[in-house]
Specification:
Layout (H helix, E strand, L loop, with lengths): L1 E10 L9 E10 L5 H6 L11 E7 L10 H9 L3 E6 L1 E2 L8 E2 L22 H13 L7 E11 L1 H9 L6 E7 L25 E6 L3 H5 L13 H10 L7 E6 L27 H16 L13 E6 L1
Parallel strand pairs: 3-4, 3-7, 7-8, 8-9, 9-10
Antiparallel strand pairs: 1-2, 2-4, 5-6, 10-11
Helix pairs in contact: 2-7
């Protein structure tokens, strides 16, 4: 088995040109080239013997190129998943700047409107396009669109955590370096934790050497931040009940961009980050945890891993 990918372009209604297009990259398990047609085109047939494949949709961090999550795409495709990343440039960043967005619907991101609608504006258009991909062409009938895991990094992780309840096809959620603290700029009281009302499995991942979350504490009315507080508060306060399939795993020495490889230091906020350790081993364990989590395996075996500083479940 090898991993291959195809590209798609989606038109977004209601957005002005040129900010009305999302570009998808859909990774899938494939056979090696079988004939000259495949060798010449580079388009390889899916290894569909175990199809339909569970689908993972990743939401990138702000100004984090989707290529940074290729390591996870490769690892999950080798385990029999389809992995979807995307690139969407808008002019809706602070100050009207153009940049890469995970798709943030700001009208539902304030204190008055939170919970009244999906804060993730890219999710539904992508799900609609995946229906088309699954209905004809190269990946026809290869996607299990009733078994989607919504994942994300940084702001994209926050959007993933906040939005599972709005999409019935989403069966589980995972996030790295993300929480649901409400920004005081958006009218939330200091130290407010936005509730996660979804009754679905959740995997929260992070690092205890995260300089971006540490520096960003002031956004949420905090006077100090040890970079794990926001994640722990989200896990403890935002997620209700005890199902035993909600997990928090904070990696020892991992920073905000451990999850992004290769890292692009020219964009985003890596200049705020602290020096990491054991990045390669951390990513290997994360990929294994995410794969097991999506298929519903118990993650208790990771509880005593020397690379994980905090492991909790509820």
């Amino acid at each position: 088995m090898t991993t291959r990918a195809i590209f798609r372009a989606i038109h977004i209604e209601g957005k002005p040109a040129p900010f009305d297009t999302i570009f998808l990259k859909i990774f899938y398990p494939a056979f090696a080239p079988q004939d000259d047609t495949e060798r010449n085109s580079g388009i390889l047939a899916p290894d569909a013997q175990h199809a339909p494949f569970p689908v993972v949709l990743i939401l990138n961090g702000v100004n984090c190129p989707p290529e940074a999550y290729g390591w996870l795409a490769q690892s999950l495709c080798e385990r029999g998943f389809v992995f979807v990343s995307f690139q969407w440039i808008t002019n809706e960043l602070p100050g009207g700047m153009q940049g890469l967005t995970p798709g943030i619907d700001v009208k539902f991101m304030n204190y008055e409107n939170y919970g009244k609608g999906a804060t993730g504006s890219a999710i539904q258009p992508i799900l609609d396009d995946l229906e088309m991909v699954n209905s004809e062409g190269l990946l026809e009938s290869c996607l299990d669109l009733e078994n989607i895991s919504l994942g994300g990094h940084s702001a994209g992780g926050s959007i993933a955590l906040m939005n599972a309840e709005f999409f019935s096809q989403v069966k589980s959620v995972f996030a790295y370096g993300a929480h649901t603290q409400g920004s005081t700029i958006m009218g939330f009281p200091p130290d407010y934790v936005c509730p996660i009302t979804s009754e679905k499995p959740i995997l929260m991942l992070g690092g205890n050497n995260d300089g971006v979350i540490t520096w960003s504490a002031r956004r949420y009315g905090k006077t100090e931040e040890d970079c794990t507080i926001s994640l722990k508060q989200t896990f403890e306060k935002a997620i209700g009940g005890t199902r035993n399939d909600r997990y928090l795993a904070i990696f020892d020495g991992a920073n905000h961009f451990t999850f992004a490889h290769p890292q692009d230091t020219t964009t985003g906020r890596p200049f705020l980050d602290f020096a990491p350790k054991n990045n390669t081993e951390h990513r290997r364990i994360m990929a294994e945890m995410i794969a097991d989590f999506i298929v519903g395996k118990d993650l208790a075996r990771f509880a005593n891993n020397e690379n994980i500083a905090i492991f909790e479940r509820k």
